[in-house]
Amino acid sequence: MAGYMDRIDELVAKIRDRVSKEPMTPAQRAAKVFTWDTTLDHAFGGFAFWDPRSVGITDISTKEFYTDPVKMCYCQIYAAERFEHDFPAVFADMYNIDVEACGTPLEYPEDSIPVIKEHPIKQKSDLAKLRIPDPYKDGRMPYLLELTNLFSQKVGDLFGCSVATNMPFSGVVGLRGYQNVIMDMRKDPLFVHEMLEYMLEVQIVFNKAIIDAGGAPVPCDAWAAPPNITPAQWEEFALPYATRLMEALKAHNGQKSNWFLGWGYSIVPDTERFLRMFNASGSGICFLFEEDIVGRAGYSTIDLEKFYEICRQQKVVLSTSLMPQTIFEGPVERIEKLVTDWHKVCGKGGGHCYYTTVPLGSPPEHVEAYVRALKNCLYPVE
């Protein structure tokens, strides 16, 4: 059996042959999205997955997925060839890698994502014991750097190389624990700021190394998304540090980062104000999830046309994102209708793309329907 590097090269050859027959590469399609150019051929989008079995790979364990950069790279490129989507990316367990390098112990089950065993900051004095990790030596930071470099070398010209990392607030949750951070924000807010300053420094160093390896960081921040914290807490503890991280990274490579906050826009008291603040942070993209668009899973419903218009005026790309549950449950008709409906609303002015996650057990035909719908969403929008 050929080694995984040989398999990668075989898949890349197939992808290059297919893409050579299309009007543009996925990277060129993405560039048009981010420059608000509506002359792309069809909608741009793709998906992430957290287990190789989600895309039909059974000879790589989940543990290997998160520890072996060559096998992880193979999985991403395999899915790109199998499903022909535009956005294969370097999305590992982004909420664990930096905090693990800081001293957070993890468990590595064979068949699930790595999990935190315990949080290293049990009391205030523990913060002073932590050091800034070396991204080239500590924890699995070298794994992610090697993965980034390999992916960028093999297919970066076709797809770019987006790399999921962490934001300061979500990083602090990994170091301290969610419940403790919630209590600290109320009882000892200055200590939270101290932890955030430390985590900001860690993430500046780490994300710069990602950039130097050929990646484009996508700092993720689900712990800061409503209702996990209140809008006031977000404004004090998440927004300033996210902004400072993105400013530091832009100073390093001259490009905007894409803050992956996620859901919750529909349940804050003032959706438009919250969105304007987010868009002013310096992020190049705003991810809006199906929960907020159609009112699923306990969320309310936003006015998608108005939401998109605010993003358009502030020149922040809007990514409309299907729930993983929708990819899992289907049916095909619903998947295709959501993608098509959102394209009709958000596609006319440019600056619009798609994202989702493929959970374990999702029928392949649901993933195929999602990608097919993207390719059927043509420009210009009539």
What does the model show?
This protein is an alpha/beta fold and 382 residues long. The protein has a single domain, classed as Alpha-Beta Barrel (TIM Barrel), CATH 3.20.20. It has helices at residues 4-20, 26-34, 62-65, 69-83, 97-101, 141-159, 168-176, 178-187, 189-212, 231-253, 271-279, 290-295, 304-313, 324-329, 332-346, 364-376, and strands spanning 45-48, 106-107, 115-116, 162-166, 216-220, 285-289, 317-321, 352-357. A four-stranded parallel sheet has the order 1-8-7-6, with helices on both faces. Helix 2 (26-34) packs across helix 6. The chain is globular. It starts with a helix and ends in a 6-residue tail after the last helix. The model has no long low-confidence stretch (mean pLDDT 97).
Which short descriptors sum up this protein?
single chain; 382 residues; alpha/beta; four-stranded parallel beta sheet; 51% helix
- Given the helix and strand composition, which structural class is it? alpha/beta
| The CATH architecture | Alpha-Beta Barrel
Radius of gyration: 20 Å
SS summary, helix count: 16
Number of domains: 1
Q: Can you tell me the CATH topology?
A: TIM Barrel
- In quaternary terms, these chains amount to single chain
Lateral arrangement of strands in the main beta sheet: 1-8-7-6
Strand segment count: 8
Poorly predicted runs: none
Largest sheet: number of strands, sense, barrel closure:
4 strands, parallel
CATH class: Alpha Beta
Shape: globular
Strand content: 5-15%
Q: What is the percent of helical residues?
A: 40-55%
* Averaged pLDDT: 97
N-to-C CA distance: 50 Å
Order of helices and strands: HHEHHHEEHEHHHEHHEHHEHHEH
